[in-house]
Design brief:
Radius of gyration: 34 Å
Pathway: Protein modification; protein ubiquitination
GO molecular function: ATP binding; SUMO activating enzyme activity; ubiquitin activating enzyme activity
Structural class: alpha/beta
Family: Belongs to the ubiquitin-activating E1 family.
Pfam families: E1_UFD, ThiF, UBA_E1_SCCH
Number of strands: 30
Number of helices: 31
Protein name: E1 ubiquitin-activating enzyme
Largest sheet: 8 strands, mixed
Distance between the termini: 86 Å
């Protein structure tokens, strides 16, 4: 299994779970929309053996959800028609097709680890479920019926969950320990002044204790004392003295779950996954509904016809009969039953995508025992996605790719969807799923419809495990180009264009007024906050609905943003990530994150920033020496090190340099710290300096047999060789490297001089002059040294920027080994290179299951927005499939935040019919708002300030467009400019400055002028006509 391909997924479930996936056999029955979504996800996640059982042929109704089928496949077996395209998703997986009789299917089920039914809810399933239970086979069934879906999970009588929530175990440093010898207990204080997070432990939790001075490593059961303290029993504590330092880590315990059979769960449904707390009664209602639809289908050989009142009434009659016998609910929700019955005859992409992600995740849980499975039902509906005005009887006279969608949503809403002009920002994991959803749902296939996708990134190997539009041969090509081409092949009626531009202030001439104004809807598929905030601001400016979503491992969320109704994405912000203090990183680390930050700093200093400084000098020595750096001692010493003292001539020199770096970083630098602050040193208050979260370090001795030491020497030598373009011999052995290291001459360590501060001791003028003269002589000597080595053939050195994604470049090797060696100095637990790479590269864990699922939720909201639903009918979603947990809630209403007068959606349009002066603009804004203006800015450029602005008079006398042009830049291909105005309510003594809504100032192409020109043109034409007459 390719570790690069599955890197993001492995960070969610771990290596052991990935190995289980690579050895598993899964049977999927049915390859409609839900089936193909499930199989696609299983292939991408790395299931080794997948067999598809399919006995149905393709019809037009499949094309609204089964993305690998086309009109040319009508009449062909669905699995056989899709096989080639599915096989291309993952060449490591063994995919096969089976079909036959029911008895053959029943026998086949016993040969797999997991069996998934995706197309039916019939009486045969209870029999097959019993067969699976008796054979130890995990069983999952799911159905997708219009805007209704259902999942059932049965993992047998006993199922061990090794990790119930997917969260990292709680860990922390031990700040202090106290012993109560009378009770044989040790109390641990975890309150770190630099990190005030509570330990999060409860009575009975098990933890491991490591690296405590005076205490052997142990696993103990704790008792919670308070949010920052816990205690544990230790009968040997009477013999302990002077305990200090160390770390604690929570030990996760497996849990045992017991599942009931399908037959028993039909009669006595176990509490299922509630998805909306405003619909508390829906689980029972939907369970009864699924039984009623299943009976209707058995009796009529088909599902209820689309928007057919008679069929909907028949379903209600069946439901009443069943409920009278089993009392699933106190009272049937007839409106709910009617709406779902009328719209369940078609399968839609949105529901199949949502359920397919969840089903594939349940398969992964069954195989890996990671995360808590659904126990045992999940029923879900989205009736608000249906048109608010119920269509009359719907029939398909001319079958098309959208036939199934029309059966669910009616022609009017489906036509609206097809004619949407959608801007998709991002073509990564979320973007690929959205584009597939658009293609299959018919978005952009109408006469006025269009999809535009932009993404500046190129395809990488690690993308292939969750960005299913890409193949191995696409690595290195633009994401948006390949994704758009893939969607066009799925639905050749789709009008789609791709761009490779980043959307931001620097591209506002590309994404200009005309572009934004032409859009119906914006969908974000981004992975960073700044880009999201910018898109959010543009949607506010141009009053465009925005569908936002994101994922993190097993977690996902979505947000619906509707102009003039809801808050925006930027209305609420997560707190910024806390930065580590520099002194902690460089002198007092206590967790591995500190040593990784230190190692990144060392990498940058040795191989990038220092090299860039040398190249700047080599490019133009005279200009460098005339500048600030030419008289800076530190800068000149850097040049001398790289160009003279440490410059290698061959790879042997690189190895010796690395040995010296080991000495300076892990021995001499540590000695400097302990010399300045000995172990018994105290603070001004008399407390021990090395206490609490400070760890006393120990210098490292070079050990040729230590793996981390070898990796550091080898990787740093190779990186230095890369900097100087030195060839690395192919036959360099470990023994050879160590022999060179053993014979390397090391600089003699010189301890730092600790100067005692003497009161009122200031150097006299002569001493100052001598010091200045000495410093200048040193500068002159350094300048002469470095300029003396310049020749016309001196090549530029190669600057190396840290790259986490290429395992062959030795960047992560250096970082991991340097971090771990530094951690060893401070007795901090070490981690492997894989974990270091994740922390250093800020890699976001991701899985195809979560990604696919959340885009299904978003697509259901898209129908609501397009159909004109108000915010009360829309839902934001938060999902954690590991728990599992689903919650949907109404979007927050936009509030009047600006002076209590304006919401984020409001703006002040200034179109005076001509380009006015800044002074006139100030007067106009004041007249409209009643507020005093403090400043006007355009982007980051200040245009006007009420006090202390030297160009105030010139600004006020200039026209707005001239002044913006002079101080900033006018947007190209736009007749408006967006200004930020800071104001204050001077009538309120407690008022602070605040931002007014954006000022949209029109500086050309005025409507009055257009009308005047049109009138003049009309008069000229009439005059010409009279002359001809």
């Amino acid at each position: 299994m390719d570790s690069g391909r599955y890197d993001r997924q492995e960070r969610v479930i771990g290596r052991a779970a990935m190995k289980n996936l690579s050895e598993t056999k899964v049977l999927v029955v049915g390859l409609g929309g839900l089936g193909v979504e499930t199989v696609k996800n299983l292939l991408l996640m790395g299931i080794k053996y997948i067999t598809i059982w399919e006995d149905k042929d393709t019809t037009f109704l499949d094309l609204s959800s089964q993305f690998f089928l086309t009109i040319d496949d009508i009449g062909k077996n669905r699995a056989e028609a899709s096989f080639k395209k599915l096989s291309q998703l993952n060449e490591y997986c063994d995919l096969s097709i089976k079909k036959g009789s029911l008895s053959e299917l029943e026998h086949l089920c016993t040969q797999f680890s997991v069996v998934v039914f995706t197309d039916t809810f019939s009486s045969n399933l209870t029999t097959i479920n019993q067969i699976c239970r008796s054979s130890g086979v995990k069983f999952i069934s799911a159905i997708s019926r219009g805007i209704f879906g259902q999942i059932f999970v049965d993992f047998g009588d006993e199922f061990n969950v090794l990790d119930r929530d997917g969260e990292q175990p709680s860990t922390g440093i031990i700040v202090d320990l106290s012993i109560d010898k009378s009770n044989n207990t040790i109390t641990v204080d975890t309150k770190d002044p630099d990190n005030l997070s509570a330990h999060g432990l409860n009575d009975g939790d098990e933890i491991s204790i490591k690296n405590v001075q005076g205490l052997p490593d142990a696993q103990v059961c704790i008792k919670r004392v308070d949010p920052y303290k816990f205690s544990f029993f230790d009968p040997e504590c009477v013999s302990y003295n002077n305990l200090g330092g160390g770390y604690w880590s929570q030990i996760k315990k497996p849990i045992l779950l017991k599942f009931k059979s399908l037959e028993e769960c039909i009669r006595h449904p176990k509490t299922d996954l509630l998805y909306d707390y405003s619909k508390m009664s829906h689980p029972g209602q939907l369970h009864l509904l699924s039984l009623s639809l299943s009976q209707f289908e058995r009796e009529n050989k088909q599902l209820p016809r689309s928007y057919h009142e008679g069929d909907a009434s028949a379903v209600l009659l069946i439901a009443n009969t069943i409920n009278n016998e089993y009392r699933y609910v106190d009272q049937i929700d007839e409106d709910l039953f009617t709406l779902i019955s009328m719209s369940c005859s078609g399968e839609i992409n949105a529901m199949s995508t949502l359920l397919g992600g969840l089903v594939a995740q349940e398969v992964q849980k069954a195989v890996t025992q990671k995360f808590s499975p659904i126990c045992q039902w999940f029923n879900f509906e989205s009736v608000s996605s249906l048109p608010s005005s119920i269509p009359s009887h719907v029939s398909i006279e001319e079958p098309s790719r959208s036939s199934s969608s029309v059966l669910v949503f009616g022609e009017e809403l489906q036509n609206l969807v097809q004619n949407q002009r959608i801007f998709l920002v991002g073509a990564g994991a979320l973007g690929c799923e959205f584009l597939k959803n658009f293609a299959v749902s018919g978005v952009g296939t109408g006469a006025k419809g269009k999809v535009t996708v932009t993404d500046m990134d190129h395809i990488e190997l690690s993308n292939l495990s969750r960005q299913f539009l890409f193949r191995q041969e696409h690595v290195g090509q633009p994401k948006s180009l390949i994704a758009a081409a893939a969607c066009a092949s799925m639905n050749n009626d789709m009008d789609i264009s791709y761009m490779v531009d980043r959307v931001g202030r620097e591209t506002e001439s590309t994404f200009n007024d005309t572009f934004w104004s032409s859009l119906s809807l914006v969908v974000n598929a981004l992975d960073n906050v700044d880009a999201r905030l910018y898109i959010d601001s543009q949607c506010i400016r141009y009053m465009k609905p925005l569908l936002e979503s994101g994922t993190l491992g097993t977690k996902a969320n979505s947000q619906v943003i509707i102009p003039n109704q809801t808050e925006s994405y930027g209305s609420k912000r997560d707190p910024e990530q806390k930065q580590f203090p520099e002194c902690t990183i460089h002198s007092f680390p206590n967790v591995i994150q500190h040593t990784i930050s230190w190692a990144k700093s060392v990498f940058n200093s040795l191989f990038e920033s220092g090299v860039n400084q040398v190249n700047s000098f080599l490019k133009n020595p005279d200009a460098y020496m005339k500048g600030e750096n030419g008289t800076n001692e530190s800068s000149l010493l850097t040049l001398k090190d790289y160009l003279i003292i440490e410059r290698p001539n061959n790879f042997d020199d690189c190895i010796k340099w690395s040995r010296c770096k080991f000495q300076s970083l892990f021995q001499d630098a540590i000695k400097d710290i302990t010399t300045m602050n000995p172990k018994d040193s105290t603070t001004s208050s008399g407390a021990l300096f090395w206490s609490g979260n400070k760890r006393f370090p120990t210098p490292l001795e070079y050990n040729k047999d230590d793996e981390q030491t070898f990796v550091f020497i080898n990787s740093s030598a190779r990186l230095l060789a890369n900097v100087y373009s030195i060839q690395v011999p192919s036959d360099i052995s470990r023994d050879y490297i160590h022999s060179l290291c053993s014979n390397t001459s090391l600089p003699v360590y010189v301890a730092p001089v600790i100067k005692k501060q003497e009161e009122n001791s200031e150097p006299d003028a002569q001493q100052v002059a001598e010091q200045q003269n000495e410093h200048q002589n040193k500068i002159n000597g350094l300048r002469q040294d470095v300029t003396g080595v310049i020749s016309g053939t001196t090549p530029n050195m190669r600057s190396i920027e840290f790259d986490k994604d290429d395992d062959s470049n030795h960047h992560v090797d250096f970082l991991s080994s340097a971090s771990n060696l530094r951690a060893r100095c401070y007795n901090i637990p070490e981690i492997d290179a894989h974990e270091t790479k994740g922390i250093a590269g800020n890699i976001i864990p991701a899985m195809i299951t979560t990604t696919a699922m959340i885009t299904g939720f978003v697509m259901l909201e898209l129908y609501k927005v397009v159909g004109g639903r108000k915010m009360e009918g829309c839902r934001n979603s938060y999902v954690n499939t590991a728990v599992p947990f689903v919650t949907m809630s109404e979007p927050q209403e936009a509030t009047k935040e600006v002076g209590g007068k304006y919401t984020i959606w409001e703006k002040i349009n200034v179109d005076m019919g001509s380009d006015i002066t800044i002074k006139e603009l100030l007067s106009e804004i004041n007249k409209r708002t009643g507020y005093s203006i403090m400043s006007i800015t355009h982007g980051s450029d200040l245009l006007w300030l009420c006090v202390g602005f030297k160009d105030k008079q010139n600004a006020e006398a200039s026209t707005v467009s001239d002044w913006v042009k002079n101080t900033s830049s006018l947007p190209k291909r736009s007749d408006t400019v967006k200004l930020r105005v800071l104001a204050m309510d001077t009538n309120s003594p407690s008022s602070d400055p605040f931002d007014l809504p954006p000022i949209i100032y029109k500086f050309k192409n005025f409507e009055g002028r257009k009308q005047k020109l049109a009138a003049m043109k009309k008069q000229a034409l009439e005059k010409k006509k009279r002359n001809l007459d």
